[in-house]
Amino acid sequence: MKAQRLRVTFTREEPVRYISHLDLMRFWERALRRAGVGLAYSEGFSPHPRLSLAAPLPVGVTSEAELMDVYLSTPVSPKEFLRRVSTELPAGFAVLEGEEVGLGLPSLQSEVRWAEYEVEGRLDGTQRELEEAVQRFLAAESIPWEHVREEKVRRYDIRALVREMRVEDAPAARYRLSMRLRCDNSATGRPEQAAAALGLSEPDRIHRARLRLAGTSPTREAWRRAGRFLE
């Protein structure tokens, strides 16, 4: 029986950026059990904890704004939940915020609309050339793109997946972009593919800064860098 649904914002930084999605879910299950919170379980022959992430984070990508819904059988205040869980997390993980949300609301995954990224890598040209490439990309009505994976070719319009993109200040011979990409049940933009569409080298750093949900403001600025607990 589910008595409470908490929406948790957490970070995933350099020390843990190569954890797979499956291993991440197993990690959270163990950490929450150690924290002593009363997890709610699914029904059936193989019950499992009721946990759900907003949008899986690709391996190698860091984040300061991951969202997870945790269903509890025993209610607990968000402040107490964060206090307990924080003591069970290794370097690279931190819980920033928790809030109670209605049990009857749509699933977290169905509410995600956009993801914002910071993307960095080696720049072979000039900053001016990069800015012009971004302007051409944003001015285009459509940009045909194809992605090959395991001998399967997927063709789509990559321009339709990018809502915003801008060039940020960067050291010499480096590029730094911020971009807001589509992230919903029907399509997901990949930051490394958006960089490739500009003719850039493969990024060596991709960081997810925010997730935006349907009809909401940006995750309540939960990505507070100080990592302090919220009342």
How would you explain this protein's 3D organization?
The protein is of the alpha+beta class and 231 residues long. It has 2 domains: 105 residues, Pseudouridine synthase I, catalytic domain, N-terminal subdomain (Alpha-Beta Plaits, 2-Layer Sandwich), CATH 3.30.70.580; 103 residues, 2-Layer Sandwich (Alpha-Beta Plaits). Helices cover 21% and strands 34% of the residues. The protein contains 5 helices and 10 strands, in the order βαββαβαβαββββαβ. The strands form 2 sheets. Strands 1, 2, 3, 4, 5, 8, 9 and 10 form an 8-stranded mixed beta sheet that branches. A hairpin with an 8-residue loop joins strand 2 and strand 3. It starts with a strand and ends in an 18-residue tail after the last strand. The C terminus is likely disordered.
Which whole number gives the mean pLDDT?
A: 90
Measure the end-to-end span: 27 Å
The CATH architecture of the largest domain comes to 2-Layer Sandwich
**CATH homologous superfamily of the largest domain, by name?**
Pseudouridine synthase I, catalytic domain, N-terminal subdomain
**Residue windows where pLDDT falls under 50 for at least 5 positions:** 217-231
- The helical percent reads 10-25%
What Rg do the Cα atoms give?
A: 19 Å
Q: Number of DSSP strands? A: 10
Helix and strand string, N-terminal first? EHEEHEHEHEEEEHE
**How many alpha or pi helices?**
5
What is the name of the CATH class of the largest domain?
Answer: Alpha Beta
